[in-house]
Amino acid sequence: MLLTLGTAAAQGGGQQQNVTLNGALVLPEGEKPGDWQVAVGPRLLAELTPDTQTRASTAKPHADGTFSLQVTGSGQQYVCAYAGGKLDVDSVVPIRLAPGGEAPTDLKLSPKAPRAQVAFVLQREDGTPLGRKVKVHLYNVHGELAAPALESDESGVVKLERLPSTRYDLWLEGAAEPGAAERQRLAAALFSGMDVTPGSEVQTFELKVPPAAAAKGRLLLPDGKTPAKGYVVAVRSGTVPVEGERLEKWPAAYARGARGDYAETTVAPDGSFTLTGLTPGEHAFDLRPQGEREPWSTLTAVAVRAGKTTDLGTVTVARNGWQRLFDRRSLDGWKEADFWGKKEVRIENDRVVLSRGNDMTGITWTKELPRVDYEVTLQAMRVADTDFFCALTFPVAKDPCSMILGGWGGGVVGLSSLNGFDASENETSKFVQFENQRWYRVRLRVRQEKIQGWVDTDKLIDVDLEGKTLSIRLECEPSMPFGFATWETTGALRDIRLRRLDPGER
Hints:
Layout: E1 3-5, E2 18-25, E3 36-41, E4 57-59, E5 66-72, E6 75-83, E7 86-97, E8 107-109, E9 115-124, E10 135-140, E11 143-151, E12 157-163, E13 167-173, E14 190-195, E15 199-209, E16 213-220, E17 232-235, H1 250-255, E18 264-266, E19 272-278, E20 281-288, E21 297-304, E22 309-316, E23 323-324, E24 334-336, E25 345-348, E26 351-354, E27 360-365, E28 374-384, E29 390-396, E30 399-407, E31 412-416, E32 430-431, E33 439-446, E34 450-455, E35 458-464, E36 483-487, E37 490-500
Parallel strand pairs: 1-7, 2-8, 9-15, 16-22
Antiparallel strand pairs: 2-5, 3-4, 3-6, 6-7, 9-12, 10-11, 10-13, 13-14, 16-19, 17-18, 17-20, 20-21, 23-37, 24-27, 25-26, 26-37, 27-36, 28-33, 28-37, 29-30, 29-36, 30-31, 31-32, 33-34, 34-35
């Protein structure tokens, strides 16, 4: 729910306005207001620290839980509660400050009880203790906690007290043991989807760190001759460092948007590179020019094995690079799709949130884009509810089509429509057990003769178009020619990129 607020203190002429927000912190039994803080600001902060606290207005609630917050400015703001300086995700209330009117007096924040103590126990693959100190990074859905890093004890255990109840990811940084043989090194693993729940006892997560794999090769610029000196080869991510962030913090910022692991390396003057610390399995690597936060192109379907180094040979940077379609700050280039029963679209930190509509909410691209021989990638999440959280409508030459994720009760993936049949009825139909509150990497490739689609590393759509007709369902027409929508579901999107395929690229 979004509250749109006005203020009697608003000033005309585009000047700043001052707002007093009054509300109450409704705490679970046993929690004391003095152990909490409340805050309001234009960006959700995962943790209140001396560095981040300047970006929000904060206050201590009174003994009865009531509070007053002073806000200067207008537009999108977030009111939320913090336990021990750490964000309680369930307490977040988005508001939009508008000139005129009165600020509400009945704002209520309802956090969950934190867990008294949480232990993250890092183990080797055989279940034995890790047996050494390591640095780890902990993330909730809005960012990193305890930055720049947490350090385990000598056995590899990290303990935290009064951790708010929500879902967390943990990235193990620098697990490679100096001088260890290749087969003995540990991966820079990323453990996702750990649900911390309220309770007074210790909640323990046993995290088995797999042995590391590696990949090497030689990277050349698009001319096929010049070494790509200074490029960064990195595990694909859906997040980037904020502007102005120090270089030493960049890896942790990228790790937040990765899946399974995060590692990076810099290409040598002769074009050679070796990327270590990978988890075994299939990977995609982003290629970032020296000093750039955004990737230029991506290597996909790279398979690596534990204790081995996969030789990729000579790899060439794509001639056509990624075009960023979402700037993480605004809907520049987009408009809210004109669906009947649409609800709010908002920017929440680095993601677009499409609120549950009655039936659909979405956004539509307003600028130029190719109609064939291109690919799109993004990360999508079903935040809440049970139906499709990403209907990607796209052009195929003169015809429209939609790629559906999570439709018809929550699990159908496919194209709507093929030969007049929708995604639940045609040859592209697949079933995926999607989880809420989890990011999925979506990739779509469109050629004149073929459409291909992936979710994470799984190719779920691979259809030849010869002799077939494409169309979309009537409900999706407001998304044309290119857009995203949800059905009775709150969804989130981030890292939306598009690139034209290079000549001859298949």
